[in-house]
Amino acid sequence: MLSVYHYGEQQQIPLSYKFVEDASQYDESQLQRSIPTLILHGHNDDVIPVQASRDFAIDRPWIKLIELDSDHALTDAMPQIWQEVSAFCGL
């Protein structure tokens, strides 16, 4: 187990190493199934650089990447998030 900070729970929670073992068996370049995907990523994210989402989405035209003027938690962008999710889902 590894203790990691979970932003949604706002506390440290245990993450099993089995998560890492499972994730390591997948080749990211093979994730090419065209499932409509929405990524919302903050420009000021100091946990995961926004470039990671850009790189992931660039060769996957079914992915819509929206960059928000926010940080990793995105808590100050909730109205825009709900607007983007609603539009994406056709609500």
The main sheet orders its strands as 1-2
Q: What is the chain-wise order of helices and strands?
A: EEHEHEH
Largest sheet: 2 strands, antiparallel
Number of domains in the coordinates? 1
Quickly give the CATH architecture.
3-Layer(aba) Sandwich
CATH C-level class: Alpha Beta
Task: Describe how the helices and strands are arranged.
Layout: E1 2-6, E2 11-15, H1 17-24, E3 37-42, H2 50-58, E4 63-68, H3 78-89
Parallel strand pairs: 3-4
Antiparallel strand pairs: 1-2
Structure summarized in a few sentences:
It is built from three helices and four strands; from the N terminus they run ββαβαβα. The chain is of the alpha+beta class and 91 residues long.
Question: Could you walk me through the main structural features you see in this protein, from its secondary elements to its overall organization?
Answer:
The longest helix has 12 residues, at 78-89. By secondary structure, the protein is α+β, with helices and mostly antiparallel strands. The chain is globular, with a radius of gyration of 15 Å. The protein has a two-stranded antiparallel ribbon. β1 and β2 form a beta hairpin. The chain has one domain (2-89): Rossmann fold (3-Layer(aba) Sandwich). The chain contains three helices and four strands.
Offer a few descriptive terms.
91 residues; Rossmann fold; two-stranded antiparallel ribbon
